């Protein structure tokens, strides 16, 4: 399968962190955030295996414009999203497998930017539907996903290793792109 990466990358003209495709050199920064925000983090090797995923993106600080008390050095990984694609008889299925923002820069719009950039890349690579799993107790993430148009499709009891249930949420990403384009016009 041929995929194009980084269709939605860029957008640092106003001093915001730059969102761009991941590089191997970013993985340590990605893994640090993963360990800081999740009780059951993915192993480093899982990220290595997904380096070529069509929407594995990072937000990179440029050292300027740090919000509040956060210290941001040039090149810092501030957040990431991992979006993958599974062929499905012409209706390819996108999957947001992971999304996280460094704790000291959360709440400044970066999670939404990363999610939107990944959705654009997945759509550009042929996804018609995008799904994700989110912990039942993770209300901040659920609020973000609902706001972007994801809807709960089902609840999976004991989905996570610690016994917590997941909501599987789905988005018609073609419809989402049309809404985004209409808003931007
Ligand atoms: C979920 C996460 C990625 C959001 O990133 P963020 O940069 O903090 O979020 P944003 O500033 O872009 O906010 C986007 C929306 O998320 C929701 N949100 C974010 N933080 C929230 C909070 N503390 N409480 C409730 N809703 C919240 C809101 O709907 C918000 O929209 P608004 O600003 O218009 O109210 C981030 O909180 C995070 O890394 N959490 C830990 C890892 C995680 O849970 N990942 C998701 C796994 S499924």
Core attributes:
185 residues; alpha+beta; Aminopeptidase; seven-stranded mixed β-sheet; 5 helices; globular; binds coenzyme A
Structure notes:
Residues 17-174 form the N-acetyltransferase domain. This protein has 185 residues and is an alpha+beta fold. The protein has a single domain (18-184), classed as Gcn5-related N-acetyltransferase (GNAT) (Aminopeptidase, 3-Layer(aba) Sandwich). The protein has helices at residues 27-37, 44-49, 110-124, 139-148, 173-184, and strands at 18-21, 55-60, 77-86, 92-101, 127-135, 151-156, 166-172. A seven-stranded mixed sheet has the order 1-2-3-4-5-7-6. It starts with 17 loop residues before the first strand and ends with a helix. Residues 7-13 have low confidence and may be disordered. Coenzyme A is lined by residues 37, 99-101, 106-112, 134, 138-141, 143-144, 147. Coenzyme A binds at residues 37, 99-101, 106-112, 134, 138-141, 143-144, 147.
């Amino acid at each position: 399968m041929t995929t194009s990466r980084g269709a939605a990358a860029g957008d640092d003209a106003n001093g915001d962190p730059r969102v761009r495709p991941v590089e191997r050199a970013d993985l340590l920064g990605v893994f640090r955030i993963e360990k800081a925000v999740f009780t059951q983090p993915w192993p480093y090797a899982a990220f290595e295996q997904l380096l070529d995923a069509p929407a594995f993106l990072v937000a990179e600080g440029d050292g300027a414009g740090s919000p509040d008390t956060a210290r941001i050095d040039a090149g810092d990984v501030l957040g990431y999203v991992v979006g993958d694609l599974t062929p499905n008889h012409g209706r390819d299925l996108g999957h947001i497998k992971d999304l996280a923002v460094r704790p000291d820069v959360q709440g400044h719009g970066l999670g939404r930017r990363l999610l939107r950039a990944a959705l654009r890349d997945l759509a550009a690579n042929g996804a018609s539907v995008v799904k994700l799993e989110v912990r039942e107790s993770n209300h901040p993430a659920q609020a973000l996903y609902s706001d972007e148009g994801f809807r709960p499709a089902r609840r999976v009891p004991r989905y996570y290793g610690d016994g917590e249930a997941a909501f599987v949420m789905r988005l018609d990403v073609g419809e989402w792109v049309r809404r985004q384009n209409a808003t931007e016009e």
